[in-house]
Amino acid sequence: MTNLQELISVIVCTYNQQNTIGRTLDSILSQECHLPFEIIIGEDCSTDNTLAICKQYEQKHPNVIRVIANPSNKGFVRNYFDCLRACKGKYIADCAGDDFWIDNRKLEDESIILEKDPNIGIVHTDWLRYNEDTKKLSFPGKAQNTQTKVDGRSLLTAILTPDSRPAIHLCTSLFRNKWIQKAMQQYPQFFDPQAYQCEDVQIAFFLAHMGNVAWINKPTLAYSCGKHTISNPDSEEKQFLFWANATKLSYDLAQSFNLKDTQLDIFFQARIHKLLMHAFRSGKPSLRTKAIKMQQEMKIDNNRQIRFSKILLFPGIWQVMRSFRSIIKSTKTQN
Predict the structure, then answer these.
(1) Radius of gyration of the chain measured on its C-alpha atoms
(2) CATH number at residue 131
(3) Residues 6+ apart with CB under 8 A from 173
(4) Are residues 158 and 266 in the same domain?
(5) Would you say 252 and 190 are in contact if contact means Cβ atoms under 8 Å apart?
């Protein structure tokens, strides 16, 4: 992309979020920044009133908001990458349609850092969890890196091995449009929505690989929890498929860039165990087969947890343990 404008593009992907999209947009519109910003809303053919609400905001703020109303549902990742390609600004931020920013100077503080140091590709901040049921904010745990500025390559393993909190939460970030467009041109296979069902890991990875990463030690995002999302689906099979795909992305990036690390080995063993346990709870032998095949293809060694989960998945033991688990769940429900 050439001729990027002196502004910030904020991506908002949304689908069936009529109860939260207004909150998200209000939090962005309240930003106090010396640079102008545009809001690119990727409305993914919702079946509720989300599109109507987005259109109302567009009518109120025609010089700021652009609604891209998809005629059919693209899925989150394709929707996100299409919005990214539509961005006109030299810097990009994003906020999911159920999250919201809690610091009015987020864009200001981050853009100042990027403008002062051309070697920084992405700035990110701390964040808080927001429970939609209790309406309370909570701390997600200690950040993996709290240095003001680091060589991004020192974070690559951490980015590929997210635990309860990612090394870089993309919805807290501001990053250079030109850098990520270059990565998408050089490594298009990692930005294929048919191959990978997440967008944040590869974006953070390539930006860190290309330059320095800056950190602001304050929370700017309320991350919505307590509902079903792309990374928190509502069935064991869907969870299996999501985590299998995310694991493959991390593995493929590590292989492509020849990253070898004990932390990576431990992480992939934990993910295989996780997949086997999702297969166990689903009751579907096909998922067990997929998990074992994935372990073999990735050449992941067995450990105690993997061996134990495989024992649980022996047909006779599997039936008994699932029956026992159902009895325990039933008893808890009755109590």
Answers:
(1) 21
(2) 3.90.550.10
(3) 93, 94, 110, 122, 123, 124, 125, 204
(4) no
(5) yes
